[in-house]
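ugh ok fine here u go
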Amino acid sequence: MRTHEFYQNKVQDHLKPIMMWMDDLFSGKTTHPQPTKENPITTKQLINIIKPSFSTPSFKSQHIRVIVHHLRFNSKVAILSNNTGYYTSTDKKDIQEVIDSLHFRAEGIKQAAHALTRFI
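structure:
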């Protein structure tokens, strides 16, 4: 099972400046607008900002997921996501919706893993 330490170790040194920038973005400390539920930022938008700004031509969506996972443990703001993108909110209802969605997805993944055990 992947743990927080796994993801912390996955944030390679060359990604740390990007992680710090993303933390600032979600905290409202950059020139870009802070992502909100009404105005989220998509993975594609993040990549289009990050690649030229940090000279990282091979930066991919999985890097975003690893960084967001790490920031969810370490940021001072709640970084939420849904089918429209990533955003921050202090609204307990918004946060609970994302928690419920994560639990639902995790349960589906556990069920799929269990279903595959019949092949081993």
